[in-house]
């Protein structure tokens, strides 16, 4: 096989979380009288973690106000914790893909910029032991595409970057893989689409989960 390990992004790659994230963000905005966003607008605010998401939701007149930021972040985390599974589900074909990779002996993991406390329960609920390791954003590491947290995951998996593929739906994910010495595969079904992935220099771009099997083999 070309790859012995595959590390996946979560939001927009394995799980369609867009509606629940949009609802949580808009709840924070609406409760404060801030502008709200459609799901299509919101998909471009996601990808760099919850701290950056809140920065993008706060109106310009409150930029740099740490009190406004901290309260909005706390409210978002609390609301999302209660509603993160209202509409979220795996994309079609994902469970079958993970099962087939498992049969081939490929070790699968998740590395997400979603807060670790939110990412792990979602991975456990929807994917169980199909995923060997789930890592979300933690304060000990900068968020991806900084290579430190990716290297940390590779070390935990005892994985060689040369035989590990990173799979995600945004330019952040393509850079995440490349910055850690891996090849990167973009998924066109996610939040950002094929043009962004190709522009970011993805080594592969796929339109359906089953196409990943051919790459791995």
Count of DSSP-assigned helices: 10
Q: What Rg is obtained from the alpha carbons, in whole angstroms?
A: 17 Å
- Report the average pLDDT across residues: 96
Order of helices and strands: EEHHHHEHEHEHEHEHEH
Report the sheet-strand fraction.
15-25%
Q: Ranges with pLDDT <50 over ≥5 residues? A: none
Count the beta strands. Answer: 8
Kindly state the percentage of residues in helix: 40-55%
For the biggest β-sheet, the strand order reads 5-4-1-6-7-8
The separation of the N and C termini measures 5 Å
- What structural class is derived from the secondary structure elements? alpha/beta
The general outline is: globular
Largest sheet: 6 strands, parallel
Write the layout of secondary structure elements.
Elements: E1 5-8, E2 15-16, H1 18-32, H2 39-42, H3 50-57, H4 66-83, E3 89-90, H5 94-103, E4 107-115, H6 116-127, E5 133-137, H7 147-157, E6 164-168, H8 171-179, E7 183-187, H9 194-199, E8 204-206, H10 211-216
Parallel strand pairs: 1-4, 1-6, 4-5, 6-7, 7-8
Antiparallel strand pairs: 2-3
Helix pairs in contact: 1-4, 3-4
């Amino acid at each position: 096989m070309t790859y012995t390990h595959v590390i996946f992004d979560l939001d927009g790659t394995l799980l369609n979380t867009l509606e629940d994230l949009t609802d949580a963000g808009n709840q924070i905005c609406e409760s404060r009288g801030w502008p709200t966003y459609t799901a299509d607008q919101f998909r471009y605010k996601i990808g760099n973690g919850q701290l950056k998401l809140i920065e993008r939701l706060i109106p310009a007149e409150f930029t740099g106000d740490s009190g406004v930021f901290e309260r909005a972040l706390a409210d978002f985390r609390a609301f999302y914790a209660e509603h993160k599974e209202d509409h979220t589900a795996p994309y079609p074909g994902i469970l079958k893909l993970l099962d087939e990779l498992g049969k081939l002996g490929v070790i699968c993991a998740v590395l997400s910029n979603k807060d670790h406390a939110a990412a792990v329960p979602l991975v456990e609920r929807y994917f169980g032991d199909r995923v060997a390791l789930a890592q979300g954003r933690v304060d000990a590491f900068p968020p991806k595409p900084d290579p430190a947290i990716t290297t940390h995951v590779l070390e935990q998996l005892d994985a060689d970057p040369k035989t590990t593929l990173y799979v995600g739906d945004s330019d952040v994910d393509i850079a995440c893989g490349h910055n850690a010495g891996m090849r990167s595969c973009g998924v066109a079904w996610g939040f950002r689409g094929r043009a962004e992935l190709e522009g970011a220099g993805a080594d592969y771009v796929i339109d359906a989960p089953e196409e990943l099997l051919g790459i791995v083999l």
